[in-house]
Amino acid sequence: MFHPKSLVVGTLVASTLFAHSLACAQALVLSAAQIQSLGVRFSPVTAAAQLEIGASGRVVLKPDAQYVVAAPYPGMVSRVLVAIGQPVRAGQPLATFASPQLFEAGRALTEARSQANLARQALARDRSLHDDGIIPGSRWQATQARATEAAATVRAREAEMAAAGIVFSGGSGEPQLVAGRAGLIAEVNSMPGTRVDGAAPLFHVVDPTALELDLLVGRDMPAPTGGERVEVRQRGATGQVAGVVPVSDGTAAVRVRAVLDKRGSLQAGESVNAILHLRGAPDATGAGRVGVPPTALTYWRGMPGVFVATKTGVRYQAVVIEAVNEAAATVRGALPAGTRVAVAGVGALKGMLAGAQ
């Protein structure tokens, strides 16, 4: 009587035998004399630590390294107090600024402070009266509420002025736009007497030391991953990959953002050639990234691979091609250090492999 379990066992055995026969079929037993007569020569794979790819790009400022001082209200720039390239410190005046709305905001702040002062006086008076039992608790609670509201109004008006980036000079009380952080003046977009709209950018302050690299890696190169090392040797700069995104122009290239831990002599805006040091650690399938001569690559049953030297001859090993040029090829495969691959006579080995099927 037929039992379903026997079918399962038979299927497993058949699969095992097929895999074994396939592995045997991809191995060729050859003597040293046969290898020599076929013109087969071998070359070792390149160690992963030696894999480097080039990328071109630009030196850019970090997004947080730039700061814009804008007009808080529609108004007029009375005087400009700084010039392009001038270093400034946080809170340093950049220009004097006049605006009806600004003076209205200043008046509202002064009024709020006056009301808060009156509320504090009333609070002190009613506390004493309440303690002496002269006024009821409800009036004491109402006085407390008015004092709290007055203090909150002052904080709101002060926050508005702080967000506007305005201070009033001690002598004349002239309103001044100030820098929100230290840096260099990169742009001045106003002249004395210029009338500007609210939120119009007037000054551009940058930190010239906060740099990163914006690199482009072509489609024929393996894409780096986060944390891999980046180097600009000619400028003494080093860093690491912080992000990789595909380019949306259909070229299959990727953009790489690299943060610098050593700036060297790099300057913002210049174009550079960088070197990416790719890790060769095995991936989830156990395949590591290595370099092989381009002449070692061939195709068998539509899959790329190389012929690996063994004790008894050669064996065909499938690989995944990541990049190829005239000088070298980068592949992923089970090719540990010391592996030798055929770089000549590959066609003859492929013919023998086909004849053995």
Brief descriptors of the model:
357 residues; alpha+beta; Elongation Factor Tu (Ef-tu), domain 3; OB fold (Dihydrolipoamide Acetyltransferase, E2P); six-stranded antiparallel beta barrel; five-stranded antiparallel beta sheet; 5 helices; elongated; disordered N terminus; transport; Efflux transporter periplasmic adaptor subunit
Structure description:
This protein has 357 residues and is α+β, with helices and mostly antiparallel strands. The protein folds into 3 domains: 25-48 and 282-355, conserved putative lor/sdh protein from methanococcus maripaludis s2 fold; 52-62 and 210-277, Elongation Factor Tu (Ef-tu), domain 3 (Beta Barrel); 65-206, OB fold (Dihydrolipoamide Acetyltransferase, E2P) (Beta Barrel), CATH 2.40.50. 27% of the residues lie in helices and 36% in strands. The chain has 5 helices and 24 strands. It has helices spanning 4-25, 32-37, 100-131, 137-164, 346-355; strands at residues 27-29, 41-44, 52-61, 66-70, 75-80, 87-88, 93-98, 166-168, 175-178, 183-188, 195-196, 201-206, 211-217, 229-232, 237-246, 254-262, 271-277, 288-292, 298-300, 303-309, 313-318, 320-324, 329-333, 340-344. The strands form 6 sheets. It has a 6-stranded antiparallel β-barrel with strand order 3-13-16-15-14-17. A hairpin with a 4-residue loop joins strand 14 and strand 15 (237-246). The longest helix has 32 residues, at 100-131. The protein starts with a helix and ends with a helix. The model is unreliable at 1-24 (pLDDT under 50). Residues 1-25 form the signal peptide. This is Efflux transporter periplasmic adaptor subunit.
